[in-house]
Amino acid sequence: MKCARSRNECECDHEVDAAASNPALAAEQSAVTGDLVIIGLGYVGLPLAAEACSAGLKVTGLDVNERVVRGLNSGVSHVDDLSEEDVRAMLDRGFTASTDPSVLATARTIVICVPTPLSPEGGPDLGAVTSAAKSIAAHLSPGTLVILESTTYPGTTEEVVRPILEESGLVAGADFHLAFSPERIDPGNPTFGVANTPKVVGGLTPECGEAAAAFYGRFVNTVVRARGTREAEMAKLLENTYRHVNIALVNEMAIFCQELGVDLWDSIAAAATKPFGFQAFYPGPGVGGHCIPIDPNYLSYKVKTLGYPFRFVELAQEINSRMPSYVIQRAQELLNESGLALSRSKVLLLGVTYKADIADQRESPARPVARKLLAKGATLTYHDPHVESWQVDGQDIERSTDLDRALAEADLVILLTDHSEYRPKLLEEYARLLLDTRGVLRRTPKDEDPTVVPAQARRYVQREGIQVL
Ligand SMILES: NC(=O)c1ccc[n+]([C@@H]2O[C@H](COP(=O)([O-])OP(=O)(O)OC[C@H]3O[C@@H](n4cnc5c(N)ncnc54)[C@H](O)[C@@H]3O)[C@@H](O)[C@H]2O)c1
Fold first, then answer.
1. Does residue 39's CB lie within 6 angstroms of at least one atom of ligand 1?
2. How far apart are alpha carbons 31 and 28 in whole angstroms?
3. Which protein residue has the closest C-alpha to ligand 1 atom 7?
4. Continuous segment of H or E residues that includes residue 436
5. For this structure, is 208 an active site residue?
6. Pair 303, 384: CB distance under 8 Å
7. How many domains does the chain have?
Protein backbone atom coordinates (compact mmCIF):
# COMPACT_ATOMS: atom_id res chain seq x y z
CA MET A 1 0.00 0.00 0.00
CA LYS A 2 1.33 3.42 -0.90
CA CYS A 3 0.52 6.66 0.85
CA ALA A 4 1.36 10.01 -0.74
CA ARG A 5 1.79 11.83 2.54
CA SER A 6 5.01 11.92 4.46
CA ARG A 7 5.57 9.72 7.50
CA ASN A 8 5.21 12.62 9.90
CA GLU A 9 1.87 13.68 8.49
CA CYS A 10 0.17 10.32 8.37
CA GLU A 11 -1.10 7.92 11.06
CA CYS A 12 -2.00 5.11 8.64
CA ASP A 13 -0.09 1.84 8.47
CA HIS A 14 1.82 2.87 5.36
CA GLU A 15 4.91 3.16 7.53
CA VAL A 16 5.17 -0.61 7.66
CA ASP A 17 5.11 -0.84 3.89
CA ALA A 18 7.50 2.03 3.54
CA ALA A 19 9.87 0.33 5.92
CA ALA A 20 9.62 -2.89 3.96
CA SER A 21 10.61 -1.21 0.72
CA ASN A 22 13.17 1.05 2.33
CA PRO A 23 15.42 -0.55 4.95
CA ALA A 24 17.03 2.80 5.80
CA LEU A 25 13.68 4.12 6.88
CA ALA A 26 13.11 1.01 8.94
CA ALA A 27 16.42 1.50 10.68
CA GLU A 28 15.44 5.04 11.52
CA GLN A 29 12.21 3.71 13.00
CA SER A 30 14.12 1.10 14.92
CA ALA A 31 16.21 3.83 16.50
CA VAL A 32 13.00 5.55 17.53
CA THR A 33 11.04 2.57 18.81
CA GLY A 34 14.21 0.89 20.04
CA ASP A 35 13.04 -2.67 19.55
CA LEU A 36 16.33 -4.44 19.91
CA VAL A 37 17.11 -8.13 20.37
CA ILE A 38 20.65 -9.09 21.35
CA ILE A 39 21.57 -12.72 20.75
CA GLY A 40 24.20 -13.99 23.21
CA LEU A 41 24.29 -12.40 26.66
CA GLY A 42 27.91 -12.83 27.63
CA TYR A 43 30.86 -10.51 28.15
CA VAL A 44 29.96 -8.67 24.94
CA GLY A 45 26.18 -8.91 24.63
CA LEU A 46 25.26 -7.97 28.17
CA PRO A 47 27.21 -4.67 28.44
CA LEU A 48 25.79 -3.75 25.02
CA ALA A 49 22.28 -4.49 26.28
CA ALA A 50 22.92 -2.36 29.37
CA GLU A 51 24.09 0.60 27.31
CA ALA A 52 21.16 0.33 24.88
CA CYS A 53 18.73 0.14 27.84
CA SER A 54 20.30 3.29 29.32
CA ALA A 55 19.71 5.05 25.99
CA GLY A 56 16.03 4.22 26.24
CA LEU A 57 15.86 1.34 23.78
CA LYS A 58 13.51 -1.53 24.50
CA VAL A 59 15.90 -4.46 24.73
CA THR A 60 15.33 -8.20 24.80
CA GLY A 61 18.19 -10.63 25.30
CA LEU A 62 18.12 -14.05 23.65
CA ASP A 63 20.40 -16.79 24.92
CA VAL A 64 20.47 -20.58 24.70
CA ASN A 65 21.69 -20.88 28.28
CA GLU A 66 18.68 -21.20 30.58
CA ARG A 67 20.73 -20.52 33.69
CA VAL A 68 21.96 -17.21 32.24
CA VAL A 69 18.43 -16.19 31.24
CA ARG A 70 16.90 -17.17 34.59
CA GLY A 71 19.67 -15.38 36.45
CA LEU A 72 19.31 -12.15 34.48
CA ASN A 73 15.55 -12.10 34.82
CA SER A 74 15.96 -12.39 38.57
CA GLY A 75 18.61 -9.64 38.70
CA VAL A 76 21.77 -11.76 38.84
CA SER A 77 24.82 -10.74 36.81
CA HIS A 78 27.25 -13.35 35.49
CA VAL A 79 29.79 -10.98 33.89
CA ASP A 80 32.48 -8.95 35.64
CA ASP A 81 31.64 -5.59 34.17
CA LEU A 82 28.02 -5.50 35.37
CA SER A 83 26.89 -5.58 38.96
CA GLU A 84 23.57 -6.96 40.18
CA GLU A 85 22.54 -3.36 40.64
CA ASP A 86 23.24 -2.74 36.94
CA VAL A 87 21.12 -5.74 35.95
CA ARG A 88 18.26 -4.60 38.19
CA ALA A 89 18.45 -1.16 36.55
CA MET A 90 18.19 -2.86 33.15
CA LEU A 91 15.13 -4.81 34.29
CA ASP A 92 13.58 -1.57 35.56
CA ARG A 93 14.12 -0.12 32.08
CA GLY A 94 12.17 -2.98 30.51
CA PHE A 95 14.95 -5.45 29.71
CA THR A 96 13.95 -9.11 29.57
CA ALA A 97 15.96 -12.20 28.77
CA SER A 98 14.56 -15.19 26.94
CA THR A 99 15.46 -18.54 25.45
CA ASP A 100 12.58 -18.30 22.97
CA PRO A 101 13.68 -17.32 19.43
CA SER A 102 10.17 -16.09 18.62
CA VAL A 103 11.15 -12.80 20.34
CA LEU A 104 13.05 -12.13 17.10
CA ALA A 105 9.83 -11.70 15.18
CA THR A 106 9.13 -8.22 16.53
CA ALA A 107 12.73 -7.00 16.51
CA ARG A 108 13.62 -3.96 14.42
CA THR A 109 17.32 -4.46 15.14
CA ILE A 110 19.08 -7.74 15.93
CA VAL A 111 22.68 -7.91 17.12
CA ILE A 112 24.53 -11.22 17.21
CA CYS A 113 27.08 -11.53 20.05
CA VAL A 114 27.59 -15.29 20.25
CA PRO A 115 30.94 -17.02 20.78
CA THR A 116 33.33 -17.79 17.94
CA PRO A 117 35.68 -20.41 19.39
CA LEU A 118 38.10 -22.75 17.64
CA SER A 119 37.11 -26.19 16.39
CA PRO A 120 39.00 -29.26 17.70
CA GLU A 121 41.16 -28.98 14.56
CA GLY A 122 42.11 -25.39 15.47
CA GLY A 123 40.02 -23.70 12.75
CA PRO A 124 37.02 -21.38 13.13
CA ASP A 125 33.92 -22.83 14.76
CA LEU A 126 31.05 -20.73 13.47
CA GLY A 127 28.41 -23.10 14.88
CA ALA A 128 26.90 -20.50 17.24
CA VAL A 129 26.87 -17.82 14.53
CA THR A 130 25.13 -20.06 11.98
CA SER A 131 22.67 -21.29 14.58
CA ALA A 132 21.84 -17.69 15.57
CA ALA A 133 21.46 -16.75 11.89
CA LYS A 134 19.07 -19.69 11.37
CA SER A 135 16.93 -18.54 14.29
CA ILE A 136 16.82 -15.05 12.78
CA ALA A 137 15.93 -16.36 9.30
CA ALA A 138 12.94 -18.20 10.76
CA HIS A 139 11.55 -14.93 12.18
CA LEU A 140 13.02 -12.23 9.96
CA SER A 141 10.69 -9.45 8.92
CA PRO A 142 11.22 -6.79 6.23
CA GLY A 143 13.09 -3.69 7.27
CA THR A 144 15.02 -5.34 10.11
CA LEU A 145 18.63 -4.35 10.73
CA VAL A 146 20.84 -7.40 11.47
CA ILE A 147 24.35 -6.81 12.82
CA LEU A 148 27.01 -9.41 13.50
CA GLU A 149 29.42 -8.44 16.30
CA SER A 150 31.15 -11.77 16.96
CA THR A 151 34.81 -11.71 15.97
CA THR A 152 35.38 -13.67 12.78
CA TYR A 153 37.33 -13.87 9.52
CA PRO A 154 36.69 -11.43 6.68
CA GLY A 155 33.86 -12.61 4.49
CA THR A 156 31.75 -14.23 7.21
CA THR A 157 28.91 -11.69 7.16
CA GLU A 158 28.55 -11.88 3.42
CA GLU A 159 29.43 -15.50 2.72
CA VAL A 160 28.07 -17.28 5.80
CA VAL A 161 25.44 -15.12 7.52
CA ARG A 162 23.84 -13.52 4.46
CA PRO A 163 22.86 -16.78 2.65
CA ILE A 164 21.31 -18.18 5.85
CA LEU A 165 19.29 -15.01 6.44
CA GLU A 166 18.17 -15.00 2.81
CA GLU A 167 16.63 -18.46 3.33
CA SER A 168 13.83 -16.34 4.78
CA GLY A 169 13.00 -15.25 1.24
CA LEU A 170 14.10 -11.69 2.01
CA VAL A 171 17.08 -10.13 0.25
CA ALA A 172 19.91 -8.49 2.19
CA GLY A 173 20.42 -4.84 1.28
CA ALA A 174 17.00 -4.66 -0.35
CA ASP A 175 14.51 -6.09 2.16
CA PHE A 176 16.62 -5.95 5.30
CA HIS A 177 19.88 -4.38 6.37
CA LEU A 178 23.00 -6.40 7.15
CA ALA A 179 26.18 -5.09 8.77
CA PHE A 180 29.22 -6.13 10.76
CA SER A 181 30.43 -4.19 13.77
CA PRO A 182 33.33 -5.62 15.77
CA GLU A 183 32.98 -5.63 19.51
CA ARG A 184 35.86 -3.93 21.29
CA ILE A 185 34.87 -4.54 24.88
CA ASP A 186 37.79 -4.75 27.29
CA PRO A 187 36.48 -6.53 30.39
CA GLY A 188 37.67 -4.95 33.62
CA ASN A 189 38.68 -1.69 31.92
CA PRO A 190 37.50 1.10 34.23
CA THR A 191 37.98 3.83 31.60
CA PHE A 192 36.61 2.49 28.32
CA GLY A 193 33.20 0.89 27.93
CA VAL A 194 30.59 0.56 25.19
CA ALA A 195 29.70 4.27 25.04
CA ASN A 196 33.15 5.84 24.87
CA THR A 197 34.96 3.28 22.70
CA PRO A 198 34.64 4.23 19.01
CA LYS A 199 32.48 1.69 17.17
CA VAL A 200 33.49 0.51 13.71
CA VAL A 201 30.62 -0.43 11.37
CA GLY A 202 30.67 -1.84 7.87
CA GLY A 203 27.48 -2.44 5.91
CA LEU A 204 26.76 -4.86 3.12
CA THR A 205 25.65 -1.78 1.16
CA PRO A 206 26.24 1.91 1.99
CA GLU A 207 22.61 2.07 3.17
CA CYS A 208 23.17 -0.90 5.47
CA GLY A 209 26.21 0.90 6.89
CA GLU A 210 24.17 4.05 7.30
CA ALA A 211 21.47 2.17 9.20
CA ALA A 212 23.97 0.45 11.50
CA ALA A 213 25.75 3.76 12.17
CA ALA A 214 22.42 5.41 13.03
CA PHE A 215 21.61 2.56 15.42
CA TYR A 216 24.92 2.70 17.32
CA GLY A 217 24.87 6.49 17.25
CA ARG A 218 22.04 6.25 19.79
CA PHE A 219 24.38 5.12 22.56
CA VAL A 220 28.00 5.18 21.31
CA ASN A 221 29.81 8.54 21.19
CA THR A 222 31.83 7.90 18.04
CA VAL A 223 30.85 5.66 15.15
CA VAL A 224 33.47 4.95 12.51
CA ARG A 225 32.31 3.84 9.07
CA ALA A 226 34.39 1.13 7.40
CA ARG A 227 34.06 0.62 3.69
CA GLY A 228 32.13 -2.63 4.01
CA THR A 229 31.61 -5.73 6.15
CA ARG A 230 34.96 -7.28 5.16
CA GLU A 231 36.93 -4.19 6.15
CA ALA A 232 35.13 -4.04 9.49
CA GLU A 233 35.78 -7.76 10.08
CA MET A 234 39.44 -7.30 9.19
CA ALA A 235 39.80 -4.24 11.44
CA LYS A 236 39.06 -6.36 14.51
CA LEU A 237 41.46 -9.10 13.47
CA LEU A 238 44.14 -6.53 12.73
CA GLU A 239 43.74 -5.08 16.24
CA ASN A 240 44.06 -8.47 17.91
CA THR A 241 46.81 -9.77 15.66
CA TYR A 242 48.77 -6.58 16.34
CA ARG A 243 48.58 -7.26 20.07
CA HIS A 244 49.39 -10.95 19.64
CA VAL A 245 52.48 -10.23 17.53
CA ASN A 246 53.77 -7.43 19.76
CA ILE A 247 53.32 -9.49 22.90
CA ALA A 248 55.27 -12.30 21.20
CA LEU A 249 57.99 -9.79 20.32
CA VAL A 250 58.58 -8.76 23.93
CA ASN A 251 58.19 -12.33 25.17
CA GLU A 252 60.94 -13.50 22.87
CA MET A 253 63.07 -10.51 23.90
CA ALA A 254 62.46 -11.28 27.58
CA ILE A 255 64.00 -14.71 27.11
CA PHE A 256 67.20 -13.55 25.45
CA CYS A 257 67.52 -10.36 27.51
CA GLN A 258 67.68 -12.53 30.62
CA GLU A 259 70.66 -14.36 29.11
CA LEU A 260 72.27 -11.16 27.84
CA GLY A 261 71.94 -9.51 31.24
CA VAL A 262 69.71 -6.73 29.88
CA ASP A 263 66.84 -5.39 31.98
CA LEU A 264 64.12 -5.47 29.29
CA TRP A 265 61.52 -3.83 31.55
CA ASP A 266 63.82 -0.85 31.86
CA SER A 267 64.39 -0.77 28.10
CA ILE A 268 60.64 -0.84 27.43
CA ALA A 269 60.13 1.99 29.91
CA ALA A 270 62.85 4.00 28.21
CA ALA A 271 61.51 3.30 24.69
CA ALA A 272 57.99 4.23 25.78
CA THR A 273 59.08 7.78 26.49
CA LYS A 274 59.16 8.33 22.71
CA PRO A 275 56.03 10.34 22.09
CA PHE A 276 55.34 8.84 18.66
CA GLY A 277 55.81 5.58 16.75
CA PHE A 278 56.10 3.24 19.74
CA GLN A 279 53.58 1.49 21.93
CA ALA A 280 54.72 -0.42 24.99
CA PHE A 281 53.89 -4.11 25.34
CA TYR A 282 55.08 -6.20 28.27
CA PRO A 283 56.25 -9.79 28.65
CA GLY A 284 54.08 -12.28 30.48
CA PRO A 285 53.35 -15.96 31.11
CA GLY A 286 51.52 -16.36 27.78
CA VAL A 287 48.37 -14.96 26.22
CA GLY A 288 44.87 -15.71 27.44
CA GLY A 289 41.23 -14.77 27.08
CA HIS A 290 38.79 -15.29 24.29
CA CYS A 291 40.46 -12.91 21.84
CA ILE A 292 44.25 -12.86 21.53
CA PRO A 293 44.93 -16.61 21.52
CA ILE A 294 41.94 -17.36 19.26
CA ASP A 295 41.10 -14.58 16.83
CA PRO A 296 44.37 -14.55 14.86
CA ASN A 297 43.65 -18.21 14.03
CA TYR A 298 40.55 -17.05 12.19
CA LEU A 299 42.71 -14.85 10.00
CA SER A 300 45.32 -17.57 9.59
CA TYR A 301 42.58 -19.91 8.43
CA LYS A 302 41.41 -17.43 5.81
CA VAL A 303 44.94 -16.77 4.55
CA LYS A 304 45.56 -20.53 4.25
CA THR A 305 42.68 -20.76 1.78
CA LEU A 306 44.95 -18.71 -0.51
CA GLY A 307 47.56 -21.46 -0.33
CA TYR A 308 50.12 -19.85 1.96
CA PRO A 309 50.53 -19.31 5.70
CA PHE A 310 50.19 -16.10 7.71
CA ARG A 311 53.70 -16.34 9.07
CA PHE A 312 53.54 -13.55 11.64
CA VAL A 313 50.58 -15.17 13.39
CA GLU A 314 52.11 -18.62 13.34
CA LEU A 315 55.37 -17.34 14.80
CA ALA A 316 53.56 -15.32 17.48
CA GLN A 317 51.57 -18.39 18.44
CA GLU A 318 54.67 -20.51 18.67
CA ILE A 319 56.45 -17.97 20.90
CA ASN A 320 53.51 -17.14 23.15
CA SER A 321 52.51 -20.76 23.66
CA ARG A 322 56.05 -21.56 24.80
CA MET A 323 55.92 -18.99 27.63
CA PRO A 324 54.41 -21.34 30.26
CA SER A 325 57.40 -23.68 29.78
CA TYR A 326 59.74 -20.72 30.12
CA VAL A 327 58.02 -19.75 33.37
CA ILE A 328 58.62 -23.27 34.71
CA GLN A 329 62.27 -23.09 33.66
CA ARG A 330 62.73 -19.81 35.52
CA ALA A 331 60.86 -21.15 38.55
CA GLN A 332 63.08 -24.19 38.66
CA GLU A 333 66.23 -22.07 38.43
CA LEU A 334 65.02 -19.84 41.24
CA LEU A 335 64.38 -22.83 43.49
CA ASN A 336 67.66 -24.48 42.58
CA GLU A 337 69.59 -21.34 43.52
CA SER A 338 68.21 -21.86 47.04
CA GLY A 339 69.01 -25.57 46.98
CA LEU A 340 65.37 -26.60 46.53
CA ALA A 341 63.82 -29.01 44.03
CA LEU A 342 60.51 -28.33 42.34
CA SER A 343 59.34 -31.87 43.08
CA ARG A 344 59.57 -31.25 46.84
CA SER A 345 58.40 -27.64 46.88
CA LYS A 346 55.19 -25.92 47.84
CA VAL A 347 54.31 -23.55 45.01
CA LEU A 348 51.69 -20.82 45.30
CA LEU A 349 50.17 -19.39 42.11
CA LEU A 350 48.94 -15.82 42.45
CA GLY A 351 46.09 -15.16 40.04
CA VAL A 352 44.68 -17.79 37.69
CA THR A 353 42.43 -15.63 35.49
CA TYR A 354 43.73 -14.49 32.13
CA LYS A 355 43.90 -10.82 33.09
CA ALA A 356 43.78 -8.55 36.10
CA ASP A 357 40.72 -7.90 38.24
CA ILE A 358 38.25 -10.08 36.36
CA ALA A 359 37.00 -13.66 36.89
CA ASP A 360 37.37 -14.89 33.30
CA GLN A 361 39.65 -17.94 33.12
CA ARG A 362 39.29 -18.68 29.42
CA GLU A 363 42.58 -19.75 27.84
CA SER A 364 44.44 -18.49 30.91
CA PRO A 365 48.15 -19.38 30.81
CA ALA A 366 47.80 -20.30 34.50
CA ARG A 367 46.41 -23.68 33.46
CA PRO A 368 49.39 -24.87 31.36
CA VAL A 369 51.74 -23.50 34.04
CA ALA A 370 49.88 -25.47 36.74
CA ARG A 371 49.77 -28.59 34.57
CA LYS A 372 53.53 -28.53 34.13
CA LEU A 373 54.15 -27.88 37.84
CA LEU A 374 51.93 -30.82 38.81
CA ALA A 375 53.69 -33.05 36.27
CA LYS A 376 57.00 -32.17 37.95
CA GLY A 377 55.64 -33.15 41.36
CA ALA A 378 55.21 -29.70 42.94
CA THR A 379 52.60 -29.26 45.68
CA LEU A 380 50.29 -26.60 44.33
CA THR A 381 48.00 -24.02 45.89
CA TYR A 382 46.50 -20.92 44.32
CA HIS A 383 45.23 -17.56 45.46
CA ASP A 384 42.77 -15.59 43.37
CA PRO A 385 40.17 -13.22 44.81
CA HIS A 386 37.97 -13.81 41.74
CA VAL A 387 38.06 -17.61 41.54
CA GLU A 388 36.46 -19.67 44.30
CA SER A 389 37.45 -23.09 43.02
CA TRP A 390 39.92 -24.14 40.38
CA GLN A 391 40.53 -27.45 38.66
CA VAL A 392 43.33 -28.47 36.36
CA ASP A 393 42.63 -31.56 34.25
CA GLY A 394 39.90 -32.54 36.69
CA GLN A 395 42.13 -32.16 39.74
CA ASP A 396 41.01 -29.69 42.40
CA ILE A 397 43.77 -27.24 43.30
CA GLU A 398 43.74 -26.08 46.91
CA ARG A 399 42.74 -22.46 47.34
CA SER A 400 44.39 -20.11 49.83
CA THR A 401 42.33 -17.18 50.98
CA ASP A 402 44.72 -15.68 53.54
CA LEU A 403 47.20 -13.96 51.23
CA ASP A 404 49.87 -12.98 53.79
CA ARG A 405 49.95 -16.47 55.21
CA ALA A 406 49.93 -18.19 51.83
CA LEU A 407 52.85 -16.02 50.69
CA ALA A 408 54.85 -16.84 53.79
CA GLU A 409 54.15 -20.59 53.68
CA ALA A 410 55.08 -21.22 50.05
CA ASP A 411 58.61 -22.20 49.05
CA LEU A 412 58.00 -20.38 45.79
CA VAL A 413 55.36 -17.89 44.69
CA ILE A 414 54.63 -17.41 40.99
CA LEU A 415 52.62 -14.31 40.20
CA LEU A 416 50.63 -15.02 37.03
CA THR A 417 47.90 -12.35 37.08
CA ASP A 418 48.38 -8.78 38.24
CA HIS A 419 45.24 -8.41 40.35
CA SER A 420 45.18 -5.14 42.30
CA GLU A 421 45.53 -7.04 45.61
CA TYR A 422 49.08 -8.03 44.72
CA ARG A 423 50.95 -4.99 45.93
CA PRO A 424 54.73 -4.91 45.52
CA LYS A 425 55.49 -4.12 49.17
CA LEU A 426 53.32 -6.97 50.44
CA LEU A 427 54.87 -9.48 48.06
CA GLU A 428 58.39 -8.41 48.93
CA GLU A 429 57.71 -8.58 52.62
CA TYR A 430 56.14 -12.03 52.80
CA ALA A 431 57.30 -14.18 49.86
CA ARG A 432 60.45 -16.22 50.34
CA LEU A 433 61.05 -16.84 46.64
CA LEU A 434 58.99 -15.04 44.05
CA LEU A 435 58.80 -15.09 40.26
CA ASP A 436 56.78 -12.13 39.04
CA THR A 437 55.68 -12.83 35.45
CA ARG A 438 53.76 -9.54 35.07
CA GLY A 439 56.25 -6.93 36.19
CA VAL A 440 54.11 -5.94 39.20
CA LEU A 441 57.26 -5.39 41.24
CA ARG A 442 58.56 -2.95 38.66
CA ARG A 443 55.57 -0.64 38.89
CA THR A 444 55.67 2.54 40.85
CA PRO A 445 52.82 2.94 43.32
CA LYS A 446 49.83 4.65 41.78
CA ASP A 447 50.25 7.67 44.01
CA GLU A 448 53.63 8.53 42.52
CA ASP A 449 53.76 11.13 39.79
CA PRO A 450 51.83 9.57 36.89
CA THR A 451 53.24 12.10 34.45
CA VAL A 452 56.55 10.28 34.64
CA VAL A 453 55.49 7.77 32.02
CA PRO A 454 55.45 4.88 32.05
CA ALA A 455 54.65 3.82 35.59
CA GLN A 456 55.79 0.31 34.67
CA ALA A 457 59.43 -0.60 35.22
CA ARG A 458 60.69 2.47 37.07
CA ARG A 459 60.83 0.57 40.32
CA TYR A 460 63.82 -1.71 40.90
CA VAL A 461 63.77 -4.97 42.81
CA GLN A 462 66.68 -5.44 45.13
CA ARG A 463 65.70 -8.27 47.43
CA GLU A 464 67.28 -11.66 46.88
CA GLY A 465 65.01 -14.48 45.80
CA ILE A 466 62.75 -12.18 43.84
CA GLN A 467 62.82 -12.14 40.08
CA VAL A 468 60.77 -10.51 37.37
CA LEU A 469 60.32 -12.43 34.12
N1 LIG B 1 34.97 -11.23 25.87
C2 LIG B 1 35.66 -10.30 25.25
O3 LIG B 1 36.48 -9.61 25.85
C4 LIG B 1 35.44 -10.00 23.78
C5 LIG B 1 35.93 -8.81 23.27
C6 LIG B 1 35.73 -8.50 21.94
C7 LIG B 1 35.07 -9.42 21.12
N8 LIG B 1 34.61 -10.60 21.63
C9 LIG B 1 33.89 -11.50 20.72
O10 LIG B 1 32.50 -11.40 20.97
C11 LIG B 1 31.86 -12.66 20.78
C12 LIG B 1 31.13 -13.08 22.04
O13 LIG B 1 32.08 -13.25 23.08
P14 LIG B 1 31.69 -13.26 24.61
O15 LIG B 1 32.98 -13.10 25.35
O16 LIG B 1 30.58 -12.34 24.89
O17 LIG B 1 31.16 -14.76 24.77
P18 LIG B 1 30.42 -15.38 26.06
O19 LIG B 1 30.75 -16.83 26.03
O20 LIG B 1 30.73 -14.57 27.27
O21 LIG B 1 28.87 -15.17 25.76
C22 LIG B 1 28.25 -15.71 24.67
C23 LIG B 1 26.81 -16.04 25.02
O24 LIG B 1 26.19 -16.52 23.84
C25 LIG B 1 25.32 -17.59 24.18
N26 LIG B 1 25.07 -18.39 22.98
C27 LIG B 1 25.85 -19.31 22.39
N28 LIG B 1 25.27 -19.78 21.28
C29 LIG B 1 24.09 -19.14 21.16
C30 LIG B 1 23.03 -19.20 20.21
N31 LIG B 1 23.11 -19.99 19.14
N32 LIG B 1 21.94 -18.43 20.41
C33 LIG B 1 21.87 -17.63 21.49
N34 LIG B 1 22.84 -17.51 22.41
C35 LIG B 1 23.94 -18.27 22.24
C36 LIG B 1 26.04 -18.30 25.28
O37 LIG B 1 25.14 -19.07 26.07
C38 LIG B 1 26.65 -17.13 26.07
O39 LIG B 1 25.81 -16.68 27.11
C40 LIG B 1 32.97 -13.61 20.36
O41 LIG B 1 33.03 -13.66 18.96
C42 LIG B 1 34.22 -12.96 20.90
O43 LIG B 1 35.38 -13.32 20.17
C44 LIG B 1 34.77 -10.90 22.95
1. yes
2. 5
3. 183
4. strand 434-436
5. no
6. no
7. 2
Q: Is the CB of 243 under 6 A from ligand 1?
A: no
Whether 21 and 168 map to the same domain: the answer is: yes
Q: How many angstroms separate the alpha carbon of residue 236 from the centre of ligand 1?
A: 15
Comparing CA positions, the residue from 208, 182, 269 lying closest to residue 468 is: 269
Mean pLDDT of 123-136: 96
Ligand 1, atom nearest to 45 Cα:
16
What was the pLDDT predicted at 3? 36
For ligand 1, what atom is nearest to the CA of residue 43? 16
Contact criterion met (CB below 8 Å) for 132 and 112: yes
pLDDT at 7: 34
Ligand 1, atom 28, lies closest to the CA of 128
Give one word for 112, left, alpha or beta, with left for phi > 0 and alpha for psi -120 to 50.
beta
Which pTM does this prediction carry?
0.86
Per DSSP, the residues of 239-258 read HHHHHHHHHHHHHHHHHHHH
Confidence of residue 453 (pLDDT cuts 50, 70, 90): low
Question: Cα dihedral sign for 276, 280, 281, 283?
Answer: positive
**253 is a domain residue:** yes
Nearest Cα residue to 392 out of 423, 369, 414? 369
Same domain, 257 and 308: yes
97-107 pLDDT per residue, tens? 999 999 999 99
Nearest to 89 by CA among 61, 51, 124: 51
